[in-house]
């Protein structure tokens, strides 16, 4: 298995953590769920970045603040990495992360204020070349809030890994301590 | 009654069902070849027991993007998860078809984002933030250069 950035990933029988991390780092989107005020789940496809401490970083525009509102009421969230299109990974499985999220209070307009935010911005720019439109003359006028962002940090509490796309099969539990250890060594 | 939802979902070979499960967290599981019933709005769902799904509020999300995260298509159905016989069933409660692609839809989205962001800033007494366009443009140029180089010198070819 090879990551999109060209890193080799070990895929022998005991490498669940490496495979899971490869999925989380290379799948273009994940299905991110927060809980609405009426108690129903709300799910969006988003791009997430795995941080070196094992947390996940997501950003949302203040033009679409519902994710942040939901998290401030109920921090329980989940992220399912299950759509391999464009990831370059083969064979492809899936990872489900259940965690607690924090939506920052500040509105970020300069994504270089932290290395993590800069890395996420770079990732999205690389993965979605056409997003360049949003910083064009027309894009800035139509969607001025696109780059006014709220950072969302997710701390994993539980993790599951499907080695194949047989989702009805029981996934393996992820050792999150080990996941953090491997993520720290990136 | 659920004909429209069925038509939209039939465009996707897979959907993601989200309900609540282990330790009260939302849990999502992808479903192959969904069998959504256009008459009843019901769909059998296969969920592994290890995520400990429970009956209650749920949703179905179908989405698509191309290799460059473009041509985005998203369809959502609200509903609930119920235990029936030995399996799980998703039961639809609401469906709003996605806006048709095109300028009108983009314009509506732009207006909605403006309204929403203005409210967000006003509620917190904040001014319109100033985006660092210089850095953003620099990142875009670097990404373009990287893509160009990756196309000319594919890294995987040397591994």
- End-to-end Cα distance of chain A, whole Å, is 16 Å
Helix content of chain A: 25-40%
Q: Whole-Å distance between the termini of chain B?
A: 54 Å
- Approximately how much helix is present in the residues of chain B? 25-40%
The ordered H/E elements of chain A are HEEEEHEEHHEEH
Content of β-strand of chain B? 25-35%
The computed structural class of chain A is alpha+beta
* Separate helix tally of chain B: 3
Largest interface, C-beta closer than 8 angstroms, per-chain residues: A-B, 71 and 69 residues
Which labels suit this protein?
heterodimer; A: 186 residues; 5 helices; globular; B: 159 residues; alpha+beta; six-stranded antiparallel beta sheet; 3 helices
Protein model, in words:
Chain A is an alpha+beta fold. Chain A contains five helices and eight strands, in the order H-E-E-E-E-H-E-E-H-H-E-E-H. In chain A, strands 1, 2, 3, 4, 5, 6, 7 and 8 form an eight-stranded antiparallel beta sheet that branches. The radius of gyration of chain A is 17 Å and the shape is globular. The two termini of chain A are 16 Å apart. The model of chain A is unreliable at 1-13 (pLDDT under 50). Residues 155-159 of chain B have low confidence and may be disordered. Chain B has 159 residues and is of the alpha+beta class. Chain B starts with a helix and ends in a 7-residue tail after the last helix. Helices cover 30% and strands 31% of the residues of chain B. Chain B has three helices and six strands; from the N terminus they run αββββββαα. In chain B, strands 2-1-4-5-6-3 form a six-stranded antiparallel beta sheet. Chains A and B meet through strand 1, strand 2, strand 5, strand 6 and helix 3 of A and strand 1, strand 2, strand 4, strand 5 and helix 2 of B.
């Amino acid at each position: 298995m090879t990551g999109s950035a060209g890193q080799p990933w070990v895929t022998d029988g005991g490498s669940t953590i490496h495979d899971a991390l490869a999925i989380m780092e290379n799948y273009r989107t994940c299905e991110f769920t927060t809980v609405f005020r009426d108690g129903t789940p709300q799910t969006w496809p988003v791009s997430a970045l795995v941080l070196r401490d094992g947390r996940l970083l997501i950003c949302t525009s203040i033009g679409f603040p519902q994710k942040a509102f939901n998290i401030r009421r109920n921090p329980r969230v989940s992220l399912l990495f299950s759509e391999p299109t464009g990831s370059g990974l083969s064979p492809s499985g899936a990872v489900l992360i259940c965690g607690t999220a924090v939506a920052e209070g500040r509105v970020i307009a300069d994504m270089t204020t932290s290395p993590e935010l800069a890395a996420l911005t770079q990732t999205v720019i690389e993965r979605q070349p056409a997003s360049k439109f949003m910083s064009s003359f027309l894009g800035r006028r139509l969607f001025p809030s696109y780059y006014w962002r709220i950072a969302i940090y997710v701390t994993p509490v539980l993790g599951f890994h499907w080695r194949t796309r047989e989702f009805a099969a029981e996934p393996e539990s992820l050792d999150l301590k080990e996941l953090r250890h491997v993520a720290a060594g990136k | 009654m659920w004909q429209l939802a069925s038509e939209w979902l039939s465009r996707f070979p897979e959907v993601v069902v989200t309900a609540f499960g282990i330790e009260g967290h939302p849990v999502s599981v992808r479903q192959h070849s969904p069998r959504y019933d256009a008459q009843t709005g019901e769909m059998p769902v296969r969920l592994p027991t290890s995520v400990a799904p429970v009956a209650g509020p749920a949703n179905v999300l179908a989405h698509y993007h191309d290799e460059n995260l473009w041509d985005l298509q998203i369809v959502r159905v609200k509903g609930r998860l119920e235990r029936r016989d030995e399996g799980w069933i998703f039961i639809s409660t609401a469906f709003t078809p996605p806006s048709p692609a095109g300028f009108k839809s983009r314009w509506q989205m732009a207006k909605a984002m403006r309204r929403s962001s203005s409210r967000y800033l006003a509620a917190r007494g904040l001014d319109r933030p100033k985006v660092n366009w210089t850095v953003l443009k620099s990142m875009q140029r670097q990404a373009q250069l990287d893509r160009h180089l990756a196309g000319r010198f594919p890294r995987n070819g040397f591994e």
